[in-house]
């Protein structure tokens, strides 16, 4: 029998899609250039019924996050606890490997090699950041180190002065090991990022960095959302479904894969227009979140260090609670802007500059 769907890339999105489609009876052929999955990540996943289900089915939950420490330029601006925990930390390599195995057990053909599009009626690009040019991507780097942290706490530091972000996430339930990482616009050297991480860990935790494992990867922060291109549907980071402010890509990868799987199941593989419209409709909320995150990123990048730092530091606690729960949508942003004049002016300025740069690009 012929293959229904060809998937390029078996990371979070591709492996979830391969598994879900195989479990719905589709004939799937899926490729990945890497045999195992070892991508650098913070390994944090925002809790939603579907993300929790995938994490549970793959036995990959490491710990749950309740406490969030939010900093701007190294200064803590909010420190709060939430219940139920809105994040889990997963063993992402295990999650992706199990999804690949589960897909294979259900009959999916898993091929180790570069994606080749054949005569399959449906092609899906799930190559993550590698589906676009690396030219404009941001280099993120993380280190596993022994530490004195807490298994339910994360720290996120939006460092406008260094044009980047630091994070400290636990890797176990007692915080003896952490995933400390960072990415800075224009800094592509692992040595330089590790030097900054050493300083950061010493300052925040009071301990030297004892590197157990180090790894870097690219992230596509500046691309448009593209759900279908050149005959292929796109899921996950390949579709531009990444929250630009915090770099959250795991939940969007799982949710977009689940949405496309359902759309294929409802529409069949012959009618691309119907699949497209169902897929688009099902991830409207996610696309809205991504657009809002793009506006906020444009706002921070388009402002001076002082203005951007002041704006971030002045965001209310409710914003950060929504941020970690992944509930910053356009209606909330509109409400926030109406009630905060300074922020409103800043966003309008950033929007105007973004639209005018787009106008130049379109006109050229
Ligand atoms: C350092 C770092 C920390 C991060 N931390 C977090 C976090 O804590 N929480 C969060 O939600 N997100 C985080 N992200 C983002 C998240 O990792 C990605 O957005 C997410 O992995 C996207 O999933 P994906 O399946 O779209 O792509 P990926 O997981 O990148 O998978 C793409 C797959 O495609 C394969 N591939 C590439 N080219 C080809 C080809 N030509 N043929 C076949 N296969 C190919 C790759 O080998 C890979 O397996 C982080 C990213 C980085 C770099």
Annotate the secondary structure layout.
Blueprint: E1 5-8, H1 12-23, E2 28-32, E3 44-46, H2 49-57, E4 61-65, E5 67-72, E6 75-81, E7 87-90, H3 92-105, E8 109-112, E9 122-125, E10 138-146, E11 153-159, E12 164-170, E13 177-184, H4 190-205, E14 211-219, E15 228-229, E16 232-234, H5 250-267, H6 272-282, H7 284-302, H8 305-314, H9 317-324, H10 330-339, H11 341-363
The chain binds flavin-adenine dinucleotide.
Please name the CATH topology of the largest domain: FAD/NAD(P)-binding domain
Strand content: 15-25%
Summarize the amount of helix as a percent range.
40-55%
User: What structural category arises from helix and sheet content?
Assistant: alpha/beta
Query: Order of SSEs, N→C?
Result: EHEEHEEEEHEEEEEEHEEEHHHHHHH
Under the CATH scheme, the architecture of the largest domain is 3-Layer(bba) Sandwich
Structure in a nutshell:
With 364 residues, this protein is α/β, with parallel strands linked by helices.
What features would you describe in this structure?
The chain folds into three domains: 5-37 and 91-127 and 226-282, FAD/NAD(P)-binding domain (3-Layer(bba) Sandwich), CATH 3.50.50.60; 44-48 and 58-90 and 138-219, D-Amino Acid Oxidase, Chain A, domain 2; 302-363, no CATH class. The N and C termini lie far apart (48 Å). A hairpin with a 4-residue loop joins strand 11 (153-159) and strand 12. 44% of the residues are buried. It has helices spanning 12-23, 49-57, 92-105, 190-205, 250-267, 272-282, 284-302, 305-314, 317-324, 330-339, 341-363; strands at residues 5-8, 28-32, 44-46, 61-65, 67-72, 75-81, 87-90, 109-112, 122-125, 138-146, 153-159, 164-170, 177-184, 211-219, 228-229, 232-234. The model is unreliable at 360-364 (pLDDT under 50). It has 364 residues and is an alpha/beta fold. Strands 6-5-11-12-13-10-14 form a seven-stranded mixed sheet, with helices on both faces. Strands 8-2-1-9-16-15 form a six-stranded mixed sheet, with helices on one face. Helices cover 41% and strands 24% of the residues. Residues 8-14, 31-34, 37, 39-45, 114-115, 126-130, 140, 142, 181, 217, 219, 236-238, 242, 247-251, 253 line the site of flavin-adenine dinucleotide. Flavin-adenine dinucleotide is lined by residues 8-14, 31-34, 37, 39-45, 114-115, 126-130, 140, 142, 181, 217, 219, 236-238, 242, 247-251, 253.
């Amino acid at each position: 029998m012929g293959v229904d769907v060809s998937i390029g890339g078996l990371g979070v999105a591709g492996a979830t899609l391969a598994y879900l489609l195989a479990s719905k009876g589709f004939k799937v052929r899926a490729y990945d250039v890497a045999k195992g999955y070892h991508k650098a990540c913070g390994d944090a996943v925002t809790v939603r019924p579907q993300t929790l289900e995938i994490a549970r089915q793959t036995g990959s939950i490491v710990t749950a996050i309740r406490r969030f420490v939010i900093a701007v330029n190294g200064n803590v601006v909010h420190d709060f606890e939430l219940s139920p925990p809105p994040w889990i930390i997963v063993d992402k390599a295990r999650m992706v490997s199990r999804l690949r195995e589960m897909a294979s057990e259900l009959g999916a053909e898993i091929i180790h090699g570069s994606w080749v599009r054949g005569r399959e009626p449906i092609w899906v690009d799930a190559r993550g950041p590698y589906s676009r040019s690396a030219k404009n991507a941001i280099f993120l780097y993380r280190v596993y180190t022994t530490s004195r942290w807490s298994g339910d706490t994360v720290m996120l530091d939006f460092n406008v002065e260094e044009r980047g972000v630091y994070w400290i996430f636990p890797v176990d339930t007692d915080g003896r090991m952490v995933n400390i990482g960072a990415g800075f616009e224009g800094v592509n050297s692992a040595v330089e990022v590790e030097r900054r991480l050493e300083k950061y860990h010493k300052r925040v935790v009071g301990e030297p960095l004892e590197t157990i494992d180090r790894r870097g990867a690219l992230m596509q922060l500046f691309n448009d959302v593209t759900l279908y291109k050149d005959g292929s549907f796109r899921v996950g980071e390949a579709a531009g479904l990444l929250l630009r402010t915090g770099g959250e890509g795991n939940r969007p990868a799982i949710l977009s894969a689940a949405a496309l799987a359902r759309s294929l199941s409802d529409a069949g593989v012959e009618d691309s227009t119907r699949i497209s419209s169902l897929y688009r409709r099902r991830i409207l909320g996610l696309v809205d979140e991504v657009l809002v995150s793009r506006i906020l990123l444009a706002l921070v990048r388009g402002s001076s260090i002082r203005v951007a730092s002041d704006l971030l530091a002045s965001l209310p606690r409710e914003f950060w609670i929504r941020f970690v729960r992944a509930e910053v949508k356009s209606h909330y942003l509109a409400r926030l802007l109406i009630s905060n004049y300074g922020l409103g002016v800043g966003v309008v300025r950033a929007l105007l500059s973004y639209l005018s740069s787009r106008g130049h690009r379109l006109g050229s």
